[in-house]
Write a structure and sequence with these properties.
With 69 residues, the protein is of the alpha+beta class. It has a single domain, classed as Alpha-Beta Plaits (2-Layer Sandwich). Strands 2-3-1-4 form a 4-stranded antiparallel sheet, with helices on one face. A hairpin with a 4-residue loop joins strand 2 and strand 3. The longest helix is centred in the first third of the chain and has 13 residues. The two termini are 14 Å apart. The mean pLDDT is 96.
Amino acid sequence: MIEKTLKVEGMHCKKCVAKVETVLKDNNATSVMVNPDQNEVSAFFEKEISDSILNEAIQKAGFVVTSIQ
C-alpha cells in the first residue's frame, strides 16, 4: 500500500471535503482521510501514482496543492 500525504488549500466545508475525496478515489485511491482543519489529506493507493497527476486532478477540482509527500 502506498500512502500520499497532500497539503490542500481551499477546503472550507463538507462539500469541499467530499469533492477532494471523490477526485482521489477517481484516481484509484483505495482510502482517503481528509482533515480540513489542517489542510491535510492522506490517500492510500494499491499502485504508484505520480504526484503531477494528483496535483492536476485536485487543481481541476478548484483546490491548491501546496505539497505532496
